[in-house]
Specification:
- This protein is of the alpha/beta class and 276 residues long.
- The chain has one domain: Glycoside hydrolase/deacetylase (TIM Barrel), CATH 3.20.20.370.
- It is 42% helix and 14% strand.
- It has twelve helices and eight strands.
- Strands 1, 2, 3, 4, 5, 6, 7 and 8 form an eight-stranded parallel β-sheet that branches.
- α1 (15-27) runs parallel beside α2 (42-51).
- The chain is globular.
- The chain starts with a strand and ends in a 6-residue tail after the last helix.
Length: 276
Amino acid sequence: MRRLVVNADDFGFTHDVNEGIVEAHQRGILTATTVMANGAAFQHAVELARRNPALDVGCHLVLVGGQSLLRPGEDLPGSVTKMMAAITARLLQPYAELRAQIAHILDSGLTPLHMDTHKHTHLFPPVLDAVARLSNEFGIPWIRRPFDFPVTGKQGGIPWLVRTTSRGIQFARKRFELVLAQNGCQTTDHFAGFQLTGRYHSAQLAELIRHLPDGLTEFMCHPGKLGGELRDAPTRLKESRALELEALTSPLVSRAVEEAGVRLVSYRELSGQRAG
């Protein structure tokens, strides 16, 4: 059986991103999202989650960009390189910061069952160790495994640097899987979306769905509506979010899911819990 979790990052980033994520869920194939506890539109995301109980909301843990929840008023590092340097110098405590973020999400009334990290920072061993520890502490079992399976065919045309980066992060895979296993964390069999982020249309997404491997796959996406808030936001993903929303709600993609016999699922469903 081929099962697919379609999971949107950045819930809570801006109001127009939030609205795009909900539309991708209501009208398209999106089954899950992860919320940024330090996002400017966090409360709006919580309100939308309450009005859409079938949308499975997890944690999008942030150590790069925005403000700290552990130290209100203090900015988090502005890049992955700066984050790594801050952790190495013990100026940033990943466990304490991420714990504060999860607590904030729980205090909002949400009950997350899955986690991932902004910029995939849990590939960095100290962050992975913190995330695995928090998974046990808060009973949030599902952790993203950000290692793309090979992209071929109509999904091609991916820039050399992106392909090289995707291959390069495979070096972390052995330790990553060992840490999750030692801590009893759950993860999908496969993952896709790293190489396609910001550069796919409905045809490429339909092709990816037709070629999903057997087992459980997470597809990471970044839909949104391109309003003034997103235009002014500090992100490279702007116009592409509207294109991703269009692809996720495309009849072509829905037909591909049906014709390929792919079952759309959420982490809540996989954990045996009902929506709402």
